[in-house]
Specification:
By secondary structure, the protein is an alpha/beta fold. Helix content is about 40%, strand content about 15%. The protein has nine helices and eight strands. An eight-stranded parallel barrel has the order 1-2-3-4-5-6-7-8, surrounded by six helices. Helix 1 runs parallel beside helix 2 and helix 1 packs parallel to helix 9. The longest helix has 17 residues. It is globular, with a radius of gyration of 16 Å. Bound molecules: ligand 3NM.
């Protein structure tokens, strides 16, 4: 395993749930292994409000010993001494993120092609996110559904680069993501919009472990 356990990687911003902090706490209780703070889009918090909400999320993650990773905002990640940063192809360059945040922190990169995966690896990414595996309604500018083919291709070409599948993943369809060679799965709505986020996280984690280890 690399710097962090990517088995069940929960992503959320304040816009993804009515009571986001209570959802995050439930998700942590249910066994998520990694958290990404993703405050993005037209309804995203900014400035002091964003910072205060991020701090509350970080506090919860610390209580559960789960890494707190900041999406896109390298400066915020640095200021908060976050465990890492995740960047997309339209955000700060991964190389720049790595240089700024330091060798010990986690850097994740969203990629969609072999070339982007190769670049991410050269730039010092600890993992790459690949998607959308299935249809998603959580990202306005999501690319067309990619399925799992590219995960298999990138996994074979770069066996040391951990891959996290993302986009429309649920406990029911998670198996294919691991079968393709992913090290983990990333979800927003499967936990954030669940009636019982703790139970949803527990089910996802169980599904992930069953796929990974056959239990
Ligand atoms: N990135 P849900 S898909 C944040 O394809 C994000 O890179 C994607 O949310 C990509 O689990 C996505 O609700 C949204 O489908 C994932």
């Amino acid at each position: 395993m690399g710097k962090t356990d990517l088995t069940l990687y929960f992503i959320m911003g304040s816009m993804n749930a009515e009571k986001p902090l209570s959802v995050l706490e439930d998700a942590l209780k249910g066994g998520v292994t990694c958290f990404q703070f993703r405050e993005k889009g037209p309804r995203a918090l900014v400035g002091m409000e964003k910072r205060a909400f991020a701090e509350s999320c970080q506090r919860l993650c610390r209580q559960f010993g789960v890494p707190f990773i900041v999406n896109d905002d390298v400066d915020l990640a640095l200021e908060m001494d976050a465990d890492g940063v995740h960047v997309g192809q339209d955000d700060a360059e991964a190389r720049f993120a790595r240089e700024k945040i330091g060798a010990d922190k986690i850097v994740g990169v969203s990629v969609h092609t072999v070339e982007e995966a190769r670049r991410a690896m050269m730039d010092g990414a600890d993992y790459v996110g690949m998607g959308p595996v299935y249809q998603t309604s959580s990202k306005d500018d999501a690319k067309p559904v990619a399925g799992t083919t590219m995960i298999t291709v990138v996994g074979k070409l770069f066996p040391d680069l951990p891959i996290v599948g993302i986009g429309g993943i649920t406990a029911e369809n998670a198996d294919a993501v691991f079968e393709a060679g992913a090290s983990g799965l990333s979800v927003i709505s499967a936990i954030a919009t669940a009636m019982d986020p703790e139970l949803a996280a527990r089910r996802l984690r169980k599904a992930a472990l069953r796929s990974m280890y056959g239990r």
